[in-house]
Amino acid sequence: MTLVPDSFLALAANGPSWAAWLDDLPSLLRDLVEEWSLTVDGRSTHGRCAVVVPVRTADGEAAVLKVGWPHWEAEHEALALQVWGGRGAVRLLRADPKRFALLLERLHPEDLSEMWDVQACEIVGGFYRRLHVPAPPQLRTLSQQAERWASELGEKERRLPVPPRMVEQARSIARDFARDEETDGTLIHTDLHFDNVLRGDRDEWLVIDPKPLSGDPHYELAPMLWNRFDEYAGRIRDGVRDRFFALVDAAELDEDRARAWAILRLIVNVKGELEDNPAPDKSWITAMISVAKAVQD
Q: Does the annotation count 191 as an active-site position?
């Protein structure tokens, strides 16, 4: 059975480092299956950065073997899952952080993407309260991110396709949060959205795929606002606000602080799209600006 789908191998087009890692990935997966006494139990799937292989453990437990592209956002995924200990999140069964390999309990493919968006926001807001525990000291800090963004947004030569007042607003927010003592200290997921909550057996829903930081709980909301953007369909102001307040209310967060982080993250997304893609997605950029405007109207 092929452990790495052709569609994932095609990501070798991302560059030489991706190509070299993908060349080694099949043998790495075979090694892990053997070392951890696993039996492959289905067809592999993948996202943008990791392949997931259904397996059975030596005692017959249904699990998945996840091996990810080595990058800093994933370097402490195992640590976050270990801290949560299955409380609100997928349970970690075994890990090899040096090889970016995780053995996880197997969940069902159903996620929150088909649920009414406001109801899904209420569920995710409830997860914030469960997952936001003291951060382990090994994590990178959100204040460091904010300081970097303040510098990058202030570069005179940068020309973002964003109203200048919004760029300066985002830069000011980043400067303030970089100096704010409450910006660090809490374990945050940072990428918690509709697709990263799966149906489980021991709990109805469980969170997957953290990109953890030591940060501020209010940082978490923005992905729930920009995902499923097409569903706003002509009512973006009301749609964004409905989701925003459902999240804030369910998690009992401060409205102004959550709004500020959302604005900053949305403008940073525009910056990232321009930096990372030779042909930036104009519709994505427009969506980010639209949500940033709607969340503060």
A: yes
